[in-house]
Every structure is written in structure tokens, then in C-alpha cells.
Amino acid sequence: MAMKVYGPAMSTNVARVLVCLEEVGAEYEVVPVDMTTGEHKSPAHDARNPFGQVPAFQDGDLILYESRAISKYILRKGGSDLLRESNLAESAMVDVWLEVESGHFSSTMSPIIFQCLVVPFLGGETDTKIVQENLEKLKTALGVYEARLSRFKYLAGDFVSLADISHFPAAYYLLGGSHASVLDAYPHVKAWLAEVMDRPSVRKVVELMKLPSA
Amino acid sequence: MAPVKVFGSAVFANAARVMACLEEVGLEYEVVEVDYTAKEHKGPQQLSKNPFGQIPAFQDGDTMLFESRAIAKYVLRKYSKPAQVDLLREGNPEEAAMVDVWTEVEAHTYLPAIAPIFYECVVYPARLGTSSNQKVVEESLEKLKKVLDVYEAHLSKNKYLYLAGDFFSFADLNHFPYTFYFMTTSHASLFDSYPSVKAWWGRLMARPSVKKISDGMVLRA
Questions:
Q1: A203 pLDDT exceeds 70?
Q2: pTM of the full predicted structure?
Q3: Counting CB atoms within 10 angstroms of each CB, which of A43, A109, A171, B64 has the fewest?
Q4: What is the ipTM of this complex?
Q5: What is the mean pLDDT of chain A?
Q6: Cβ separation of A96 and B77 shorter than 8 Å?
Q7: What torsion, rounded to 10 degrees, do the Cα atoms A9, B151, B25, A66 define?
Q8: d(CA B193, CA B40)
Q9: Per-residue pLDDT for A185 more than 60?
Q10: Looking at CA atoms only, how far is residue B85 from chain A in angstroms?
Q11: What one-character DSSP code corresponds to residue B3?
């Protein structure tokens, strides 16, 4: 039975899960959840994600939520080496940079994406103060990334891992938005992101993110 | 072989997170104090260990790590004696997934609701001499109640002793530092309205590792 992902592909957290499914070549189905009508707060979705968020995920009887938890489950089940769990030092570095992605990159990108894309879509006005504050935090983080990627090909070392790929959803919106030029000051980051975005799995999911139903 | 080192004392919640895991596996470790008020964490020595200038950092021989949850997992993977300690459940994909789920929930949902209450009620008054921002405290309490509603339902509906199932795990341990600090504020009685959550917290506090580390979590003004 195909694994199911509940949520719109254009959601950064849903996209993260989809790219892992693509990486392992799993059969899967994306079940839409219409957040504009509050479907993510419905009893049916609540049964899958009691925090009313997307994604939710189902594999047989197993129901999971939290995109990074789902991603790891999928990669382990699919026998992927993107977690490097057979090597203590390498898996630790994957974990370190996954935490950084979550705590420093996506956390600053989320408010920017919300203000620049979601708020106008809902008919509101972008709060430029919030955008500027988070762009400054992002630049601080990008400085650390630049130093790291000047020494290593990828974040966890000289091997690609979930830590790199986990950046793609927020990066997709950064690259396609009006603040992409912030990356110009960080050439190693820019080159690394271009390589991540060029992965077949990422290109496939980007196509899903662009669909109207997404 | 030199003992592993934690840079940052237990008074820092994220350092306490790491130390609780070290205690669980029974590994000898050294605590290197980092002078926060002197901004030592932003100095070149510490930045070489944690490039974001945060606490903690960690050293095991040649391995340098930062990010408390990554450090904690490394410690558990390397030093757990399988028969005695299995907090990650990596031999069982479904159990490991549930541990990951509730570890993520702590990081993204629980901590952002509960931590501000501790910072407003204890840290900022002690460190900055400011009075608590009641608006932030009230908003956080409302968020926390909604979060605890879900935790209560999860624990009571499934009759689980712990978050990932009937086994104590990394997911539970991750909740210890900030919950402990919340319990030192005047809002601790909030947990009385959530009997299953309160009982779960009691189980956590009864663990020798948690008792030992929380003894060191005294905020010095």
C-alpha cells in the first residue's frame, strides 16, 4: 500500500517529506488538505495530527507528524544513506546541521515566507519590519554557513545528507522571491544551494509545489 | 582517555539537556563553565566550538559538536549499554519514529510555549532587572494550555506512561530542562489541571539523572 502524505505540496514541511520519498523511490500519494478552508483543523485531520498542522503521514497503521521525524522514518525504511547512521561521527554532523537548518535557517525563513507570500495571498499587507529583522538574522546564519561550506563540500562533511536537502523548501522560496540577492554575498552557500536544487528528487518536488492544487 | 567535555553549566537548559543524557548512560564528563554575563560564549574560543555563539558545545576527543539535541543523540548512540539504556529505540523503526515525533514536538511546539514564561518570570528580572512582561506571559500561558490539552489527550487516551509509548525515551528527557524551570515559577500549578501530564512529569522528576542535574539548575543572579 502506498504511503500517504496529508497536506499541500507547497508547504515547506510537506515538501521536505516529499523529497525524502522521492530520494528512496517510494510509492506515495499526496492527499490535499485545504488550509484556506481550515481543513487542517478538522476532526479528520486532527486524528492524524493533533496539533492541527501539515504534514501528517500514514504508512499502514503507523501515523506520524513532524516533517523531520517523518523524513527520517522514510529514509531509514528506504535504506537511504542520507542519515549516515552507520557512522557515529558522520551521523552526529548530520544531526548538528539538521538542528541548524531547523533552528537558524527555516526559523528565519518562515516569517519571511509568511509575510511575503501568504499575507498578500490572504489580502493583507506585508510587515516589512518583520521581514527586515529576519533577513538580518538570516545573514548572520548565512555567514556561519559560508565559513562551513568554504571548508566542506556539504554541511555534514564531504557527503550529501538530509541536512543539505532539508534546506530546499525554504531555499526554493528564497530563490524565487524578492530577497534572493541576499545570497550574493555568500558564494559558497549560493553554489551549494544550486547543487541541492538540481537534485532529481528536488526538481520533481518543485514541480509538485508549483501545481495549482498544491 | 580524557573525559568528554560540556561547555556550559547545567544552569543553561540546553546544557542540562545534554548532561541528563550523560547521566543516563553513566559516562564521566567534565563541565567547563562559560561566563554568559561576560559574553564568553561570543568570544573567539567559544565561537570555534559553537559558531552560533550559543551554549552548549561539546568535545569527545577530536569530535566537536554543538546543538544540544545532536550532542545528546551522539552521546546516547555511542555510550548506551544496550541492555540498560535504549532511549532512541533505533532498532525498531516505528518506536524510533515516535521518539523522533515527540522530540520534534518539544522543540517546535512545547518549548516555544513554555520557555517564555520562565524567561519573563525568572531570567529577565534576575539578569536585566526588568519586571515580567505580563502580555507575553499571558499569551504564552494560553498557548501552553492548548499544547497541554494535546499532551493530556495523548497520554490519557493511549494510557501511555511516556510520550512515545510505554517506554521512557529521549523524547521525554528533552522535556525536562524547560519544564523544570517552568515549575520554579508561580504558574507551576497549571499542571494540576492536566492529571496525566502531571503524573508523567512526576515520573521524569523521579529519575536519578533528572534529580541530579536539576540540583545544579539554580539560576544565579
A1: yes
A2: 0.96
A3: A43
A4: 0.96
A5: 96
A6: no
A7: 0
A8: 41
A9: yes
A10: 17
A11: P
Q: Which own/partner contact pairs does B54-58 have at CB distance under 8 Å and 24+ positions apart?
A: B54/B14, B55/B7, B55/B8, B55/B12, B55/B14, B55/B15, B56/B6, B56/B7, B56/B8, B56/B12, B56/B14, B56/B15, B56/B18, B57/B6, B57/B7, B57/B8, B58/B4, B58/B5, B58/B6, B58/B7, B58/B18
**Run of H or E including B172:** helix B170-174
pLDDT of A142 higher than 90: yes
* Residue in A66, A87, A93, A149 to test binding to B, most B beta-carbons within 10 Å: A66
At residue A64, the 3 state secondary structure works out as strand
Q: How far apart are the first and last CA of chain A?
A: 23
Report helix, strand and coil shares of chain A as percent, to nearest 5.
Answer: 60, 5, 30
* B105 contacts in chain A (CB < 8 Å): 51, 66
Of the residues B42, B100, B149, B151, the best mutation for testing chain A's interface (the one with the most A CB atoms within 10 Å of its CB) is B100
pLDDT at B221: 43
Find the CB nearest A99 among B70, B150, B154.
B70
What three-state secondary structure class fits B58? strand
The one-letter amino acid code at B2 reads A
Give, as one character, the DSSP assignment of residue A127.
Answer: -
Separation CA B4–CA B74 (nearest Å):
12
**B155-186 as b/e: b if 16+ CB within 10 A:** beeeebebbbbebbbbbbbbbbbbbbbbbebe
Residue B34 Ramachandran class (φ > 0 left, ψ -120 to 50 alpha, else beta): beta
Judged by a CB distance cut-off of 8 A, whether residue B105 touches chain A is: yes
